[in-house]
Design brief:
Strand content: under 5%
Radius of gyration: 29 Å
Number of helices: 1
Largest sheet: none
Length: 72
């Protein structure tokens, strides 16, 4: 194998590695966006759950079933 063939093969390998790197970087960006969306959705769900829990505790307290600090 000549030096020119070796250099051509090395250039092909480098080009393939660069393409793989670019593809991986693009996937990482996509996964990052999905993760951000999921975090925001989870935060919204947690916030709603906390709000619903507070409302339930208020209703239970109003009915005399629940007292802050423990049950009667």
């Amino acid at each position: 194998m000549s030096n020119a063939e070796i250099i051509a093969m090395q250039n092909t390998i480098i080009s393939n590695m660069a393409q793989i790197n670019a593809d991986l970087h693009e996937r990482l960006l996509q996964y990052s966006e999905v993760a951000k969306c999921e975090v925001m959705e989870n935060r919204a769900a947690i916030s709603k759950l906390e709000s619903d829990t507070k409302k339930l505790l208020f209703c239970l307290s109003d009915c005399g079933v629940f007292e802050e600090g423990g049950n009667p």
